[in-house]
Amino acid sequence: xxxQFDIIQPRxxxxxxxxLTKYQSAGVVVLAGGTDLLVDMRxxxxxxxxxxxxxxxxxTGTAPRKVNKPPSYLIALSRIPEMSGIAVSEPGEISIGAxxxxxxxxxxxxxxxxxxxxxxxxxxxxxxxVRNRGTIGGNICNARPAADTFIPAVALGAxxxxxxxxxxxxxxxxxxxxxxxxxxxEEDEILTKIxxxxxxxxxxxxxxxxxxxxxxxxxxxxxxxxLTLDIKGKxxxxxxxxxxxxxxxxxxxxxxxxxxGKDPSDANFLKAGEIAVSECHPISDHRGSLDYRREMVxxxxxxxxxxxFASIIV
Amino acid sequence: xxxxKILNTRAPRVDANDKVTGKAKYTDDLAMPGxxxxxxxxxxxxxxxxxxxxxxxxxxxxxVFAVITHKxxxxxxxxxxxxxxxxxxxxxEKVRYVGDEIAAxxxxxxxxxxxxxxxxxxxxxxxxxxxxARQAMAEGAPELHEKYQQNIVQQVHWxxxxxxxxxxxxxIIRTDSLTSKMQDAAFMEPQCALANYDDRGYLTMYSxxxxxxxxxxxxxxxxxxxxxxxxxxxxxxxxGFGPKASCSSMELITCLLAMKxxxxxxxxxxxxxxxxxxxxxxxxxxxxxxxVQKDGTLVFLxxxxxxxxxxxxxxxxxxxxxxxxxxGGPYRLENMKYDGYRVVTNKPACGAQRGHGAVIAxxxxxxxxxxxxxxxxxxxxxxxxxxxxxxGETTCNELYLSSFGMKxxxxxxxxxxxWKQKRKDQPRGKGIGAACGFFVSGAGYxxxxxxxxxxxxxxxLSEVGGGVIVESGAADIxxxxxxxxxxxxxxxxGIPLDDVKVISGDSDLAVDLGAxxxxxxxxxxxxxxxxxxxxxxxxxxxxAAKTGAACDDLDIQDAEIVWSKGDLDIDQIRxxxxxxxxxxxxxxxxxxxxxxxxxxxxxxxxxxxxxTGKYKPPVLGGSFKGAAVxxxxxxxxxxxxxxxxxxxxxxxxxxxxxxxxxxxxxxINRTQVEGQMEGSIMMGMGEALMEEIKFDDCGRILNANLxxxxxxxSLDVPPLEAIIIESNEPNGPFGAKEVGEGAIMxxxxxxxxxxxxxxxVRLDELPATPERIRAALRLKDKGK
Lengths: 314, 784
Description:
heterodimer; A: 314 residues; alpha+beta; Uridine Diphospho-n-acetylenolpyruvylglucosamine Reductase, domain 3; Enolase-like, domain 1; 5-stranded antiparallel sheet; 4-stranded antiparallel sheet; 11 helices; B: 784 residues; Aldehyde Oxidoreductase, domain 4; Aldehyde Oxidoreductase, domain 3; 3 domains; 5-stranded mixed sheet; 20 helices; 22% strand; globular
């Protein structure tokens, strides 16, 4: 059951930023697609005031509470037209409005061609119903370590545009999350768009998710890779991002550095996978053990590199 | 086989349109004037004494009409098996799992009801909990119930034949074990109940239940109301699979709140409450030792099983018996020893779930057969074919197989799945596996000690002529029993399906023990057939008297009265009928006497024409202790072949195809039989690969929702081929017997055997998640 709240539906970004500042003290949360927020806001079934047993960790267990204090206001961004859509904003840049739905990402030809890893990450997210409502901005701001569009955004070198009444700022995707569900976004800021550098020629990308079933899943491990070849066919640059193996999405710079200047061979991809294992910090939880996750990092990194390489149209 | 007009077709379900257009009313769709909303306070602790409960603040909240605790209920225990009643409407003295019900509220809105729960204060004294069944049985373990020594609810020690005497005859003796996890049945509709207690002392409860009859009895007993003043009605139900087959605390609480407030009260479970209430599949720890001769002949089975059943007994006695008894078939096995222990722990209570106690036992035995086949260098299907029983045989535990298409089912899947070729030719990472199954077609005895009929049906001709109304207590929970009752009635009466209306699932209408143990088609179907035959005889008697034809020469075909000697003289009857129906449409002008005319005439002659039917199994089974569990008037059997691809690096399993064959005796509705087979396979697939309730160290469920409790999605489910085998069961209506549960039996072992074929690794723990498979592969690689 949801607690009581009022909903505000601004028609412009200015209005939204204003409202966000105005209701700050009363308790306000930005609502994008709601597929995470509204689930997390539910009142816990077993009232929190009842005494728990001595060993109980209040953070886990039956209906763990993700939103501590239910907000009094939700600011819904769904009626702000400029927050949705996919555009080639500048030469060499694709800009995606934060309220663009996951389904829109899946169906966009330009994203599938130029930002393949993001299209694949979007394919992997939830179910058709969730994809129709969920947004890329919501998925990134929710900042789960396994977020399906966040991992490829990190791999693809995206920048996040944050806006408030105080002004605009750009944050590299890999610097956005600071812990599970925690980001550098200030309380009065709204994520407005995600800006991707458009891949140069001889570039390919891929995103792979490992889970216990084929849809409606939270990754046990996910890996996204971006690979660019030089004119001789050697790897000129690589970026590899991992999900669900650290408190936030992470890059594996050592594995990427290893690949630089090397042949895009299976042997090198395997080696990069092994290096990536040393760069991740997974935990054991009910979705997977630390050991399994480490082992799978190696497999998924090498596979995602191979898939990124295979997607390069020479 | 006899030609049928309605039966054995693919007639659309009578409720199909209402279900797919959202018009069907489920319990939560119902509302009454002045209705209140119930909410339940669940225990946050797994094992604790209740020192005090203070409801004052909650009672004073505006909009709250009643707050109840155990003090408001009679001190009457209830449960499933009368010998093991161990639950109270609300916890007395102590709580035994996270979720145990402590108090409840009725309020004007659901929001106020939940708010009131926040105002109830409870003081606990913590007790040591125990979460593992083996630890619960150990010396000095915390005791959950005074009456269960060592926390054992029921133990079974069976010995059929003489295992010791034949042990040396076995050339190969293998011991294997398998552990499963507690499950959730993941039905679509969370439980809901709406109760109303009127001024004359009549209690009516609408509930999402599989068994209105048992619920009616429990309400009357626990609430101290005369049985005849309790009515339980089952609206449309979105699945049950077992957990809705007994009366729940929530149902009793809702009635208590209605009685206390004098207003209708509705309580609807959250999905999380579905998990907490549970009553789904137990956790099983099986160990089996099987002896076979070199030629593959089964010699003996020694079987031990411990069942973790959570905090209360629920169906547990039946479960622990089923876990042993249903290995009596489908193979010739004359020597069988079984030691079973059903244990309580501080977790949600387990009960019955599709296939009841037999599913994991079946999984291990069928996996073991494959291991034995490998040692014998024999094809696993050949090994099975060598041992399968046939119709007319009796198992070592005295289950009589009146019809049995096991051999036909096994051969059908073998041939349809191109078994022999795929078994040989597939590369590592691809695998194919087979297994069989065996299940009751309706429990031979009621849950309480009684000579009651298991099903009765009252069929009435509509007095205006043309229609037929079937009244039954049978619970259509989505499996399609209303359609089955309509089809049988229409076939017997020779009329179109659309002219039969079924009213069912209401304890005021007729008796039916409920939709459990795969009993409804055989039992309620038999009663419906008898009732329809009675009605038909009555109509034809009237026609015979009016026309002078002999009754035996008359029949009803295509909704017309047919006389085997020629054309009946119907001029006067038709004249009268037309006079009665001036300006009506559809009045017959020529041709034969219609069913509508004949049934109207029967009413004019005799008053309401009513036929009744009843079914009760004959006395079944042996005389040993517990012999009743596993008995049935008929037994279904099935075989499946699963084909899988295993990603050897990640351990991920893709099920590529499952071919299943099930002997349902006779398919009343072919589409519905296939639907049950497909549903069973999907459920079995989930249990094999992903389903698992996970707990933290305090006994709290970590995945009490359908996002984190994994069942197969449509992307996981492969093409399923369902082959219907019809062995013409002599004890079933038109030869029909079960399909609803038996079809799940082979799925888990067929998949496990296919995984072995693909990887050469065996798993002793379910579900076979990627991580477990990968761990087994890693272990094997190290061994090399």
